[in-house]
Amino acid sequence: MRLPALVADRAVTPEPLNVAPALVGQPLASPMRRAWAMGIDLVVVAVLSGLSNLWLGAGLLLVLLQLRSSGAGAGRWRKPAGWALVALFAVLAVADVWHDGTGRHTKAAITVDDDDEDLAPAAVRQIGAGLPDAERIKLLEAALASARKPGHVTLRAELNRIADALGASFGWGIVYFSLLPALWNGQTLGKKFLRLRAVELTGKPMTVMRGLKRYGGYAAGMATGGLGFAQLLWDDNRQAIQDRTAHTVVIDLRRSAQMP
Q1: 137 part of a folded domain
Q2: Which domain holds residue 84?
Q3: DSSP 98
Q4: For 7-53, how does the pLDDT look when each residue is reduced to its tens digit (9 = 90+)?
Q5: What pLDDT digit, counting tens, does each position of 128-187 carry?
Q6: Residue 121, in any domain of the structure
Q7: What per-residue confidence (pLDDT) applies to 110?
Q8: Residue 251, SS3?
């Protein structure tokens, strides 16, 4: 009886096990430099997590569009596009911080400036109405102190806040770790700063899909309690679990190649 093609016998093929000749002898990045690069990347993702969900949705949509794109090679436009994307997110992050700061300043100014009857809210104007100025000032100061006290936070509200923060960080991690390596030929901001690069072992260009595979490896490394990340300490090619997942290694661009 002949088996269907879906479950037919298969043989080992050379391509998944092949290493591009140009990669032989390339210096591998040290675990310490990789840890510093990852630290920089996590800080960037944390900053991006504070942006509006609208921009997160736009970033995820861009990831999907890149997955559907057939042009996986590193063309001339990819490096400028990567810098443009970084510049855009930097501007958005600065604008978001500025907006929050000015918003808090405006609210504080309106709350404190309760001597101005035209600007003070109606509730503030009613506090101590008809009392002498000295007593009214004491009541206003007490009301202001009470308003500044942190409100009661329930466990459910705190869990929802943590879940929202983790969801935003996860989503921005997908955008960051899949788009930038595809646009910058295996580099993120952290890797570019420390002059490291993730390369595919067969010499194929880095793509969004390969970046997603590496990001999935990060999740698997966390699920193993960090053991998957520590694997690079004893692996011959310093491959952590994300490298195994995406068939990549991380090389050090500062050093020249040495034949083994």
Answers
A1: no
A2: 27-67+76-106+165-252
A3: H
A4: 556 666 666 668 888 888 899 999 999 999 999 999 999 888 888 78
A5: 566 666 666 777 777 777 666 665 666 666 656 666 666 778 888 999 999 999 999 999
A6: no
A7: 44
A8: strand
CA–CA–CA angle 175, 185, 256 (5° rounding):
140
The gap between the terminal CA atoms of the chain, to the nearest Å, is 50
pLDDT class of 71 with cuts at 50, 70, 90: low
Q: How many domains does the chain have?
A: 1
Look at residue 91 in the predicted model and tell me its pLDDT.
Answer: 79
Q: How far, CA to CA in Å, does 197 sit from each of 21, 104, 153, 161?
A: 17, 41, 44, 35
Residues 31, 37: Cα–Cα separation, whole Å: 10
Amino acid at 243: D
Q: What is the 3-class SS of 184-229, one letter each residue?
A: CCCCCHHHHHCCEEEEECCCCCCCHHHHHHHHHHHHHHHHCCCHHH
Q: Helix count (H) and strand count (E) of the chain?
A: 10, 2
CB atoms within 10 A of CB 242: 24
Instruction: Note the Cα 29 to chain centre separation in Å.
Output: 22
**Residue 126 belongs to a domain:** no
User: Could you tell me if residue 139 is inside a domain?
Assistant: no
